[in-house]
Amino acid sequence: MVVNHAAIAILLISFLVLILLRFKIAYAVAISSVLCLLYQGLPLSTVCQQMVKGISSFSLMAVPFFITMGCLMGFGGISEKLIALADACVGWMTGGMAMVNIVASYFFGGISGSAAADTASLGSILIPMMVEQGYDDDFSTAVTITSSCEGLLVPPSHNMVIYAMSAGGVSVGSLFLAGYIPGALLALSLMVGSYIISKRRHYPKGDKFNFKKFIKQLGTSFWALASVIIVVVGVVGGVFTATESAAIAVFYSLIVSVYIYKGLTWKGVWQTLEKCVDTLAIVLILIATSNVFGYCLTTLHVPDLAANAIIGLTRNPILIALLINLILLVLGCIMDMAPIILIATPILLPIAKSIGIDPIQFGIMMILNCGIGLLTPPVGAVLFIGSAVGKVKMEKVVKATLPFYLCMIAVLILLTFIPEISMFLPNLIMK
Questions:
Q1: Residue 379: pLDDT above 70?
Q2: Contacts of 366 (CB under 8 A, 6+ apart)
Q3: What is the mean pLDDT of residues 391-414?
Q4: Is the pLDDT of residue 280 over 80?
């Protein structure tokens, strides 16, 4: 194996420099790839070929549909109904509104699949509501941004589709099933952290649990939650492909938002679709340019070099697993989620498989790692959104988030070393 060290250095160093100069991630990936190809004397037509190849995938078509479904449901009046359902479930506890925030994120995540959408939609309602009831603004924002990461794990998640494509042949249905228990475990850990803080700060309780109220809110929210059932049952049961189920879910979301909940008019639908196009453009450009970067990494044998370097440090599977997590956490501090999945999966998945980590389990680990990265400076997109929505300085939010970082890291360690947490449902249902 001939290794071109100079080309690797140009690719990686130029990328890091561009990131530090605050270039958009898609531009940083594209420019560093072009510089690498020019140094090797390869034609720039390779860039166009690899970009088209990156987004020319039937499975990838599910991503625009899932994003569109989330936009329609998010702007269609779903948020208030899911908050009311969460309040009926856990609002009676100490720190009730914090618990409502966390549970509502679990419900909403199953619809939007986006931590940013969760923070913007639920945060704009819940943060002012929590502050009005006596919660500190930084605590309210910290709960909102950390709980939003549940939506990355709870299906349908378009990031799971991107991972399945990058990993080559991983079942999307199995990934969907694998996310439920880790998502619930993350919610539970955040609730424990919120309860402890709420007890110490004497945050208020809500009204006592009312079973009739719970049934009423469950009935009202049923139409929203049914969209998740359509997607997951359809994919897992083999009735639809992920792309087909996503397309059906978009049509269903349109009907629910316009005719059942009446949160959107047809004029509002067009405005919502315009916002969807903005989001889709960003995601698809990232996927296209990241495929060029991945092509450069592959042709330069970087995955093999990385595997040899990690194994050269240690052959202890526990240390290797921790090192993989550390690499992903560091990448999460400087890169967005989609490019991390697209670039790091071909490099780290073979290493993970070599120490006995199943590709499904590794996918859940990677998504949670990237979720934590969304909350960490300097490039934490959800951290910035939360600070803006809560109108709290970012430094103050980061300080308030520290206990929740510990909760999330604890869940990550459990997912890494207890495969059954991720694999129980896929093994039970898919095999």
A1: no
A2: 163, 328, 340, 341, 344, 345, 348
A3: 92
A4: no
Compute the half-sphere exposure of residue 25: CA atoms within 13 Å on the CB side of its CA: 24
- Dmax (CA) for the chain in angstroms is 71
Give, as one character, the DSSP assignment of residue 59.
Answer: G
What is the CB neighbour count within 10 angstroms for residue 124? 15
Q: Identify the three-state secondary structure at position 94.
A: strand
Instruction: State yes or no: pLDDT of 240 exceeds 80.
Output: no
Q: Is the pLDDT of residue 257 over 90?
A: no
d(CA 51, CA 68): 23
Tell me the two tokens of residue 263.
């949160």
Q: What is the DSSP string of 356-421?
A: T--HHHHHHHHHHHHHHHTTSSSS-HHHHHHHHHHT--HHHHHHHHHHHHHHHHHHHHHHHH-THH
CB of 256 closer than 8 Å to CB of 221: no
Six-digit token pair at 417? 């070393």
Q: How much is the CA Rg of the chain, to the nearest whole Å?
A: 21
The two structure tokens encoding residue 286: 């990232």
For residue 42, what are the CA distances in angstroms to 1, 12, 188?
Answer: 19, 18, 52
Residue 59 confidence class, pLDDT cut points 50, 70, 90: low
Of 129, 143, 139, nearest to 202 by C-alpha is 139
Q: Which of 221, 229, 227, 180 shows the shortest CA–CA distance to 86?
A: 221
Cα–Cα distance, 405 to 285 (Å, whole number): 30
Residue linked to tokens 């300097």: 378
For the chain, what is the mean pLDDT? 84
Give the pLDDT of residue 417. 95
The listed range with the strongest mean pLDDT (50-64, 129-143, 379-393) is 129-143
**How far is Cα 266 from Cα 257, in angstroms, rounded to an integer?**
10
pLDDT, tens digit, 9 for 90 and up, residues 312-333:
888 899 999 999 998 888 888 7
- DSSP for 115-131, please give it: HHHHHHHHHHHHHHHHH
